[in-house]
Amino acid sequence: MTERAGIFDSGPDFDISGFAPQKPKPAAPPEKVRTIAEKLEFKSREVEQKRPAREPRRYRTGRNMQLNLKADPAVIEAFYKIADEHGWVLGEAFEIAVEALKAKLAVA
After folding, report:
1. CA dist., res. 87 & res. 81, Å (int)
2. Considering only CA atoms, which of 56, 63, 90 is closest in space to residue 76?
């Protein structure tokens, strides 16, 4: 056949009886895959958690503006630690930090 069949051509010679689903190939054992991957120096996609995940924080405080900051991980951990030690929600801890910074700058 030198021509392609038309999309909407449903002539009598359209036979799909020769089509059958293929059987899936069995997967290789994970140990063998890991051995080969290590041998070829593939990097793992598995996520390594460096620190435990924090508990979700959901409070109804009336604060409705969001502030996204980039900071060093040590500073973020220290901020969370201070807030947790005093029982403050993060918005409250931020407000207290801003007031402390204002007071410090006024003295300086």
Report:
1. 10
2. 90
- Cβ proximity of 91 and 66 under 8 Å: no
Query: Do residues 89 and 57 lie in contact, with contact meaning Cβ atoms separated by under 8 Å?
Result: yes
State the chain's maximal CA–CA distance in angstroms: 93
108 residues of the chain, pLDDT tens digit each: 577 777 776 666 667 788 888 889 899 999 999 899 899 988 877 776 677 777 777 777 788 888 999 999 999 999 999 999 999 999 999 999 999 999 999 986
Residue 97 CB neighbours (<10 A): 14
- Which amino acid appears at position 78 of this protein? A
| Pairwise CA distance, residues 85 & 82, whole Å | 5
Please check whether residue 62 is in contact with residue 54, taking contact to mean a CB–CB distance below 8 angstroms. Answer: no
Instruction: Tell me if the pTM is above 0.70.
Output: no
Residue 69: what residue type?
L
